[in-house]
Specification:
By secondary structure, the chain is an all-alpha fold. The chain has one domain: Hydantoin permease (Orthogonal Bundle). Helix content is 72%, strand content 1%. The protein is built from 22 helices and two strands. It has a two-stranded antiparallel ribbon. Strand 1 and strand 2 form a beta hairpin. Helix 3 runs antiparallel to helix 12. The longest helix is centred in the middle third of the chain and has 32 residues. The two termini are 41 Å apart.
Length: 465
Amino acid sequence: MTQPHRLTRALRNATTVETSGIEPIPDSARSGGPGSSFTLWFSSNVQFSSLSSGMLATAAFGLGWDQALLAIALGSAIGAAAIGAMSTFGPRSGVGLLVQTRGPLGRVGAAFPAVLVFFKACAWFAVNSVLGAFAVQTLLGTGFGPAFAIVTVSQIAIALVGYGFIHLVQKTMAIVLPLLFIVVSVYALTKSDLGSAFDPDKAGALGFGGAFALTVAVQAARALSFSSYAADYTRYMPADTPQHRLFTYAFTGTWLGSVWIAGLGAAIGTIAFIGTPTDLVGQVLPGVFATITMLALGISTITSSCLDCYSGALAWLIAGVKMRRWQAVLVVGALGGALGWLAGQGDYWKSFENFLILLGNWIAPWLAVMLVDRYIRHGTGQATPGFGPGFASWLLGLAAAVPFMSQPGLFIGPIASAYPPLGAGAAAVAFLTAGLIHYLLTHRTDTRALPTTSTETRLTKETSA
């Protein structure tokens, strides 16, 4: 087959509406390689939420730019490692990660994180819809309503077509977005105060150690939020896809995109604090640079949020709701769009900040249970009825982190209150506790991995039940 014919066939396959839901993908439908994980996660991290999270390090926490960049690199590496590890779960069984959660947590227990992922996806869909609408509004000079409609409909449309189209869009954006952001980066970096020093007044009770740790935690948490989706975008890959290559591509794409854009945000934070994309125009970027930035931010929020819409829909199905995948996509789009519309009419960040922090706390202990179950216990993914031991491990890990949690305006644990720098360690405590407890609860069980074909057959029966 000639190269043009291959490209035509690939384009046709990518733009064909996906009919699969949460059932295992058969070998005959598997294709693609680990390289697509690089472009997907790189593009998904080149967005305004990465920029704003980096900005917090200097504008809010008081770090100097070089200090912030080191903390961003460390936090991004933690989150990227989670996405890389979770990406390897897809090809082996051909199902998403939440389906495989039924192994350690049980069929009923797995419904709880599935519901949380659904609401998390709706919240992030809302966040990115508002951010994208602000950018499009500034770019086109329209009202908030038309701009919001353009962004939300675009995100839903990409998710409706499905897996192949999402990868195609992300591959394209992996070329387009760097070209746009390079221009902005050169200008912003030359105008920023890259020699800024630590500001103890901004850090307050956190001090330098607390500000550094909190920056690491913020960057890690942003990528950890994506990790619950990771296997959704590798489950169509052949079962023999090399795991080390898949991990490397997913890790590298996530880390590079996150460090670049968050580092740029930290640089901008040395001269101004930017709450929305619109603020960039008035405070940092003039003329043509503002236009290029709004275009880049508008596109990037759409390409990122389509993942929330797609994976949120799969989570809704795994939670036990009986409907088709495309119907679940519309549910996520409708709920997320409604939340975004309400938030866009008022104080955007105040509406969502605490809600997103609350949703993020559960991911670390859940991740620990999944990693221990697969890489230490060699779990097969076979679902257990009711609640599995992983459910208790997950809840106990979360409970152990409560004293360390620091959510101003909602809840500050006793340890975080007495020692503010330790408030950044809640996720680490939850991860280590859940992982250790799950190992202790299950280490006497002989769970040697079964052949891939047996796993796929079993999962087929379980997901169709």
